[in-house]
């Protein structure tokens, strides 16, 4: 391999793989047989040992899947797969938009199929072993089919639009970014109403103490809540969660049925107050703005690396063994080249996200007049999900969007004292 761009990309991919490997190994080394004092009464010895084993299995499985993905990419690349696929599709004489849709679609479908055995193993072996999995084979197959159909229905028009813009419009990167941003905003609005119900049932919460208390809290927080739903999360997993959806003056809450089953009313209110805190502190808007800026940078650089007159674009396509410069292939190659930058951006994004979590925790404690309800809820969530209580600092820095549980509890207890 005498192409300097190809060498750089390979080195970058290996560096990222090695960094993740080191982070996983450090996480495994950081596991402590001693249950942290804060979790006594929530974990017993058996459950704590189970949580540590879950971490071991998950980290090792992550190493295997990351190694598999990298090996698959390098084998396909070095055997000339990108060039062969591009030449074969071009031989049919179709326009560049259709050729591009098929090029990216075949790569996506191939990767999905080759990753499917690992997804099956994760769902029916690992998650089943630790008591999380509730997905039946029928549900799993239907989910896969729905996911592929949804990717085709939504992804193909979006991809066609982006490819057309780059082939027909001046300042294409700007218009492509605006179109993609509009699509993201539209999906944020449509997903809760039309997409999520394809996979789960959302039933209005029945009248009772929980619903009344949620409505009271929303009024106290001046939170524009319009609907409260219960989602059948237990259909697929025993793990639990809650989330908000909606724009402007129409906010909706969805609570997993497993969350309601495992927590007291005050604990549920603490979790929801935390989510309201993200809204009140404008964290959601900040994250969206950061995402839009990052996407703008991606499209701007994509325009540079697919410029027919660019020597760098020529070298990039030579690195992957593709003869003709095109937007669709450039998009694929650019995402591989962009991976080191993406990792750096995700680190900064995670730093900001962890700060937001502390702020939302503090808001929840203020609204409830005590941090104790949220503390109890977080402890239960940690135990129910077999969370790693003692992660190493490096994987936390690289990948954690939430602070480690012990750090969050310490911050909440400091609020109690103050």
If you had to describe this structure to a student in words, what would you say it looks like?
The longest helix has 42 residues, at 327-368. This protein is globular. With 418 residues, it is mainly α. The protein is built from 15 helices and four strands. A hairpin with a 5-residue loop joins β3 and β4 (251-256). The model has no long low-confidence stretch (mean pLDDT 90). Strands 1-2-4-3 form a four-stranded mixed sheet. The chain has helices at 4-30, 45-78, 81-90, 96-129, 137-168, 172-195, 209-221, 257-262, 265-280, 283-305, 311-319, 327-368, 372-384, 393-399, 405-417, and strands at 202-204, 225-231, 242-245, 251-256. α6 crosses α10 and α10 packs antiparallel against α12. The chain folds into two domains: 4-133 and 281-417, no CATH class; 202-262, Metalloproteases ("zincins"), catalytic domain (Zincin-like), CATH 3.30.2010.
Task: Please describe the topology of this protein.
Blueprint: H1 4-30, H2 45-78, H3 81-90, H4 96-129, H5 137-168, H6 172-195, E1 202-204, H7 209-221, E2 225-231, E3 242-245, E4 251-256, H8 257-262, H9 265-280, H10 283-305, H11 311-319, H12 327-368, H13 372-384, H14 393-399, H15 405-417
Largest sheet: 4 strands, mixed
Global structural class = mainly alpha
Radius of gyration: 24 Å
Overall spatial form = globular
Quaternary organization: single chain
Q: Ranges with pLDDT <50 over ≥5 residues?
A: none
What's the rounded overall pLDDT mean?
Answer: 90
Sheet-strand content, in percent, reads under 5%
In angstroms, what separates the terminal alpha carbons?
62 Å
SSE order? HHHHHHEHEEEHHHHHHHH
Helix content: over 70%
What is the count of helical runs? 15
- Kindly report the spatial arrangement of strands forming the biggest sheet: 1-2-4-3
Q: How many domains make up the coordinates?
A: 2
Total number of beta strands: 4
């Amino acid at each position: 391999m005498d192409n300097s761009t190809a060498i750089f990309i390979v080195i970058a991919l290996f560096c990222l793989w090695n960094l993740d490997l080191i982070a996983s190994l450090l996480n495994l080394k950081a596991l402590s047989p001693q249950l942290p004092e804060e979790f006594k009464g929530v974990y017993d010895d058996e459950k704590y040992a189970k949580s540590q084993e879950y971490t071991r299995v998950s980290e090792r499985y992550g190493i295997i899947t990351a190694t598999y993905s990298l090996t698959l990419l390098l084998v396909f690349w070095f055997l000339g797969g990108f060039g062969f696929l591009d030449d074969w599709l071009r031989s049919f004489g179709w326009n560049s938009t259709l050729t591009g849709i098929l090029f990216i679609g075949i790569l996506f479908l191939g990767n999905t199929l080759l990753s499917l055995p690992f997804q099956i193993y994760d769902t029916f072996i690992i998650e089943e072993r630790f008591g999380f999995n509730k997905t039946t084979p029928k549900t799993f197959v239907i989910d896969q089919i729905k996911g592929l159909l949804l990717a085709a229905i939504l992804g193909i028009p979006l991809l066609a639009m982006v490819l057309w813009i780059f082939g027909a419009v001046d300042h294409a990167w700007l218009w492509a970014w605006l179109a993609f941003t509009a699509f993201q905003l539209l999906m944020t609005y449509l997903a809760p109403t039309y997409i999520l119900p394809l996979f789960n049932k959302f039933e209005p919460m029945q009248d009772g103490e929980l619903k009344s208390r949620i409505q009271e809290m929303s009024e106290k927080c001046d939170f524009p809540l319009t609907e409260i739903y219960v989602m059948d999360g237990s259909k697929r997993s025993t793990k639990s969660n809650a989330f908000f959806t909606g724009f402007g003056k129409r906010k909706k809450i969805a609570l997993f049925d497993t969350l309601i089953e495992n927590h007291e009313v005050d604990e549920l209110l603490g979790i929801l107050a935390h989510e309201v805190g993200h809204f009140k502190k404008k964290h959601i808007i900040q994250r969206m703005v950061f995402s839009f800026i990052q996407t703008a940078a991606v499209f701007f650089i994509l325009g540079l690396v697919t410029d027919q007159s660019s020597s760098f674009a020529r070298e990039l396509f030579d690195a992957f063994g593709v003869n003709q410069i095109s937007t669709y292939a450039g998009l694929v190659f650019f995402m591989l080249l962009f991976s080191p930058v993406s990792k750096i951006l995700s680190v900064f994004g995670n730093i900001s996200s962890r700060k937001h979590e502390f702020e939302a925790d503090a808001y929840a404690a203020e609204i409830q007049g005590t941090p104790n309800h949220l503390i109890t809820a977080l402890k239960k969530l940690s135990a129910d999900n077999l969370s790693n209580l003692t992660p190493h600092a490096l994987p936390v820095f690289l990948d954690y969007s939430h602070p480690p549980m012990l750090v969050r509890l310490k911050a909440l207890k400091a609020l109690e004292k103050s």
